[in-house]
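ARCHIVE CARD
Drawer: 12
Card no.: 0347
Subject: one protein chain, sequence and derived structure
Cross-reference: see card 0346
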Amino acid sequence: MNAEATVFVVDDDPAVRESLTLLLEQEDLDIMAFESAEAFLAVCAAAPSRSCIVADIRMPGMDGIQLQEELTRRGVALPLIFLTGHGDIPMSVRAIKSGAIDFLTKPVTGQALVRSVREALRESERLSEKAEKNGSASARMATLTEREREVMELAVSGMSNKEIARRLGISHRTVEIHKARVMHKTSSASLLDLVRIAQAAGLHD
């Protein structure tokens, strides 16, 4: 990991914020610390692609679970590690089911925290790559005409050119032309490529 990765520490205890910051800075990470979930949410839209959150579960005002729910509502995909001074099993299960990377009990060892942060940053990279791939696929699909899109959707559903022609009431040759344009515009080398791009764009299960 390098300093291009950022860890957001969200905890209402100044001593905890300071100790976590010192520990994680030794791992060559950029640290931004916040005293509340509300303070973090005010800037989270500017989060870099390689980043994660280490948050206290119990805080005045918005707690950690509510922070997680708000990030989900906003569509902000930031891997989240929870810290708690209370061994609350039901809460930890709820947090993990909602997508949290880990649920650590204070006082947490430096080794355990660093291990979780590394895992969270790997997940952040994966999410970033997926978002970039999906955005690229959607951009390609946006170049298709309405008819090309119809042909593409039927093609990726498994229909032959003859079946597509019959369904759309056009000639077999016209289907071939539309299909060739679809392959070119989406930079697909094969029908399998086209299926993958359609899936990334959310147009095919």
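Annotation on reverse: The first helix runs from residue 14 to 25. The beta strands are 6-10, 30-34, 51-56, 80-84, 102-105.
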